[in-house]
Design a protein that fits this description.
Elements lengths: L1 H12 L2 E5 L5 H7 L2 H9 L6 E5 L14 E4 L11 H16 L3 E4 L1 H9 L3 E4 L5 E9 L15 E8 L1 E5 L5 E5 L7 E5 L2 E4 L7 H17 L4 H6 L5 H15 L3
Parallel strand pairs: 1-2, 1-3, 3-4, 4-11
Antiparallel strand pairs: 5-8, 6-7, 6-9, 9-10, 10-11
Helix pairs in contact: 2-6, 4-5
């Protein structure tokens, strides 16, 4: 009994690692912070509960057993570029999944987990998905311990060009959007990912639309309409907090 208490106390002191895979543009970074900061704040994690490892800058992750859980950020990079730091992180993800580490990937992190475990990632055939969009839970989601209580349809903020085109073996889709069939994927008991950004708020999404307006307009998007359609996404946010409470704080 005493030994068990000691082991639980040691586990409680382990940090949650936020694996930073890139930085947002300066226009977003200077107003809202980087991806890891946004995730930390949205998840309700204190500074002394996390460790940020900027793998895109060459920082090295410790062994999976040195963390309580892992959160993988978005990035302006593309998984298909096969950057050395990205492939090294993919190998770490495989080890972490085998070790049973709770893990949540977001956007680039979503695609990187799928790639690491044998799925296919690439540019979406219908182009970019952007703005506040509806996410629909699938039948499997109703039995899922993390997201089963979410509404059958909720809103989330999205900005991506690449997608998970083919799932890894054994993965299950839990939610889709009209544009992307793989919005939430579960890979293992403690491993999930979301194509959408649960850490974004309407202010962040507004800054993104303003910053990228010329490029989005050139791609055929009606940016004023996208801006007018922005709305809060509390259930997407709830999913991130629920992951941390269920898997990271209980780990």
């Amino acid at each position: 009994m005493c030994q068990q208490v000691v082991e639980m106390s040691q586990a409680a002191r382990l940090p949650v690692v936020i694996i930073q895979t890139g930085l947002p543009p300066d226009a977003i970074h200077t107003r809202h912070g980087n991806f890891s900061r946004m995730i930390q704040d949205a998840a309700g994690l204190a500074d002394d509960e996390i460790r940020v490892v900027a793998v895109h800058e060459g920082e090295t992750l410790d062994a999976p057993g040195q963390y309580r859980a892992a959160l993988i950020t978005g990035s302006p990079a593309m998984v298909t570029d096969g950057a050395e730091w990205s492939e090294r992180t993919a190998a770490w993800i495989r080890d972490a999944v085998a070790d049973g580490l709770p893990m949540l990937g977001i956007c680039y992190g979503h695609q990187l987990i799928a790639h690491a475990l044998g799925g296919k990632v690439g540019y979406h055939p219908q182009g970019r998905e952007v703005g506040t969009q509806a996410v629909e839970l699938l039948e499997d989601a109703r039995r899922d311990p993390l997201i089963g209580d979410l509404p059958s349809r909720f809103y989330a903020h999205l900005l991506h060009q690449q997608s998970v085109l083919q799932l890894p073996p054994g993965a299950r889709v839990l939610a889709r959007s009209s544009h992307d069939p793989h919005q939430i994927v579960r890979y293992a008991e403690h491993v999930l990912s979301t194509q959408y950004h649960p850490e974004f708020c309407t202010n962040v999404m507004t800054t993104y639309l303003n910053h990228f307006e010329p490029y989005l307009g050139a791609e055929g998007f009606d940016v004023p309409t996208l801006r007018a359609a922005l709305q809060p996404t509390p259930h997407a946010h709830q999913m991130l907090q629920g992951f941390v409470q269920r898997y990271a704080m209980a780990a």
